[in-house]
Amino acid sequence: MAKKSAKKNGSRDILIVGSKMKDVVKKHGCMSSGELIEAVSAKVHELLAAAAQRAKTNGRATVRPHDL
Fold first, then answer.
1. By three-state DSSP, how is residue 28 classified?
2. Cβ of 4: how many Cβ atoms within 10 Å?
C-alpha cells in the first residue's frame, strides 16, 4: 500500500529490496530507520539518471557500467 500512496504524492518507485538493505546495515552493526529505504532509492534514481545522461552525451542509447 505504501507504493500506491507514494505515487499519489508524486514520489518515485522504490528500487531497493528493503530486507537486503537492512541486512547490509545490520552487518555493519547498525539499525536502519524507516525512511532509509526511500533515501537510498532516491540516490539510486539520481545515479541512474546521471548514467543515462552520460550515455546519451556519448551518443549511446545503452547505459553501461562505466557510465556509473
1. coil
2. 7
List the domain boundaries for the chain.
Answer: 2-67
List of residues 6+ apart from 65 with CB closer than 8 A: none
Residues whose CB falls within 8 Å of the CB of residue 44, separated by 6 or more in sequence, listed in order: 15, 16
Reported pTM: 0.78
Which one is predicted more confidently, 5 or 36?
36
CB contact at 8 A, 5 and 32: no
What percentage of the chain's residues is helix, strand, coil (to nearest 5)? 60, 0, 40
